[in-house]
Amino acid sequence: MNHLERLRTLDADARLVQRIGAVLAWDQETYMPPAAIEERGDQIAFIEALAHDRQTSPEIGEHLAVLGSTVERPEGDPTLPPLDRAYLRVMRRAYDQATRIPTELVAEMAKATSLSQAAWAKARETNDFGAFAPHLSKMVEFNKRIAACLDPSKPPYDVLLDRFEEGATEAGVKAVFTPLRDDLVQLMDKIRARPQVDDAFLHAACPADKQAKASEYLLAALSFDRDRGRMDTTAHPFTTTLGRDDVRITTRYVEDYFPSSAFSTIHECGHALYELGIDPAPEYRRTGLADASSMAVHESQSRMWENMVGRSRGFWAKHLPEFQRMLAPVLDGVDLNAFYKAVNRVEPSLIRTEADEVTYGLHIILRFELESDLVAGRLAVADVPAAWNERMQRLLGVTPPNDAKGCLQDIHWSMGAIGYFPSYALGNLYAAQLWDAMKAQGLDPVAAVDKGDLASILAWLRDKVHKPGASMKPEDLLRSATGSGLDPSHFVRYLNHKYGEVYGF
Amino acid sequence: MNHLERLRTLDADARLVQRIGAVLAWDQETYMPPAAIEERGDQIAFIEALAHDRQTSPEIGEHLAVLGSTVERPEGDPTLPPLDRAYLRVMRRAYDQATRIPTELVAEMAKATSLSQAAWAKARETNDFGAFAPHLSKMVEFNKRIAACLDPSKPPYDVLLDRFEEGATEAGVKAVFTPLRDDLVQLMDKIRARPQVDDAFLHAACPADKQAKASEYLLAALSFDRDRGRMDTTAHPFTTTLGRDDVRITTRYVEDYFPSSAFSTIHECGHALYELGIDPAPEYRRTGLADASSMAVHESQSRMWENMVGRSRGFWAKHLPEFQRMLAPVLDGVDLNAFYKAVNRVEPSLIRTEADEVTYGLHIILRFELESDLVAGRLAVADVPAAWNERMQRLLGVTPPNDAKGCLQDIHWSMGAIGYFPSYALGNLYAAQLWDAMKAQGLDPVAAVDKGDLASILAWLRDKVHKPGASMKPEDLLRSATGSGLDPSHFVRYLNHKYGEVYGF
Asked: Does residue A155 share a domain with residue A20?
């Protein structure tokens, strides 16, 4: 076995263990009886430690070195085929990230995170930011220490961003987010000037079993392969990969708002279609090259299916009649135009997870600005609530009545996840740019949706976005699929066109 | 940490891995998408190998030796407390069984078994015993080799029996089964002489969702703790332990015979109540001492709940009205007496898994006689079909029209499981003896069921049967709970009394 083969085997062995962990975690979220939680925690901790051992095996480092992969030249020996070089880059990155953070720091942070999450949950409940503040300070400090371990030569927030979106920098994200922010604020002004859309009929009571049938119907409409995946119910929807042929999504049913389950199902199905489509090469099927390119690319897929396909007029022209039948009497007498407008209603709100397609980006930009300021020391933890509220008013025109509905609403910071939020908004930008690229390359996606031809869209995405997996960095993937680097104007044009139609301006 | 503590820790670590495997296997049977089977196979194989490594760690052998445990004196140092000595016995047995069979033999047999199972499935389909015969010969040979590895000083079939039922011997089982066989044949003669019971109404079409509600109702009636377990649907019902507080059962729904799911739910719930009740001592919770005493003791619990409680008149006096409501119109107009008789209808049949409480034992005795003859060389593989058919006629008065409905019906031998069948019948004998012991000790179980007081029965079983787990060998457990060794007359009396009532003799 040569070094590359041995590397793939070691990698596949580690991933096998990781995916066993994914089965345990999936079961915990879906079906596990409540009292089993303690022993399951031990099972998961055991598997995670075993996976970490395998990911950090010195043998991996030795093979990488022999193959010429270094920090300066992660792709290794230039005479190797391109896919093998891409693999060395992926493995070098994963290996360095896993080995550079000392085990003691990981353990220390895990302990602090567990306390921080508990403190956050309580602080949110009692609306007491002061009780959470010292934990947030600790999480910022831990993140700085991690950044210093990973790459002391770069500004810490750049290092943190790069963990989730390879190649992203604060300056790069800012250069995109600043004009985007202004464009979104302007668009919101236009929407505010128009009469609000009526969506009262979406709030009719609709039993979970009817919603479940509708969700199954949507999965079939999107060609979700039930031989290679399934859907279950959880408190918070997610997608998880338990095996190359085992990608599972979850949804939840809100009794008086059925669009919650419908669009969450489409969203998670978008993630799943991506995972199921990754296939850089047969010999790389069980390796890290068969992972997604990035968080934001993942989000581009979920959001394209949810918003560009799932909230389009053409999609509902085809599916509304069946939906009316399945959910009857909930949508009796509702016409296509009213339904289309209702599921695209825009309204500035306090909570990110409830935000529409237009205001969502503003919620993210706010978090990006605050977290980058926190890490750079430009903002003190104690000043977060005031900064949050001031920006909410400026960007969205609303002010949280309390911190529970403001800076305490998200779990992310309490978990030590800093640098993660921008991926959500970048995903929207990627999605719009890919959508326009389809059209430029001769496949008009809107016309395809109108014809009910989702297969052509999926085929294009499979080929240009899904198949390569991690073999291309996000920026390279975007360039390869669309011909240019990240350009937020696609998203802004898309929004202006769609919401001009919905709100009539 | 002293040697005993270290031993418990090593044991708990190995069991943690085993139970991760149980989660993977449960998911495979219940919810896993079909295409995931290959990768799941690799995940399970990895976990099994890891569990085996841990179970056979030489460190376990060293601690056992230091604590004075030897083959001759497995309980070790006589000055240790009784529970610790019981634990040493359990660990010595498990360690010897796991280490005495060479890895090569295990691998060789695994390969042969996989071929044998495939050949059996095909032979059953095509009704071609000849095609399976060479595989059956191999399975018998493998079992003899395993017996020789485990204990060359004993007759091979005794060693095989002991793997499933500690302490069982061919002579001991025969001494019980021979009179039992004659008593069952006599009882069948009495039943045959009476008019057959009508159970046509049990075969009315009943949708799966109604049956599912009825099964949930039964679990609640039996105090199955949903915080520590759950029920799902699979092709073949089973019970599995994923953690001390995570015992799961499954059932299946046969559209035109709802009693199948109802009684299978009670049966598996009986297994689960046992598993959930094991608790020899807090410090032994995650060790092999918290396993069941034996296969037959396990079966005694499932069958006591299924047959003695679940098929009793008192149980249905309480639950039939609710069943009629849930399954309406299936049981409309059926009275308690007719229902009670119908669910206890006795009829000699060809297939073991469909057999009633009276004839079941005869199916087992036939298998015991044949497999013990095969291992001892008293019966040639080629003569199995004739021997099977001759005994079926003699014991049950029916002759299989073909081997598919005769000696090819069970998967066990094709999997190399020889010595396993007797546990099923021993379980019935244990159950009846325990039932009588309750009464002798002041708790009349029939009166308790009549009063709807299942809690008293469960409490008695918890205390006398469940709690000790593996700390007592089956024969010691029986003696401790009932005051005497195995006595099949309890079962025979129970059957004669019950079926005298059902058939009126």
From this structure: yes
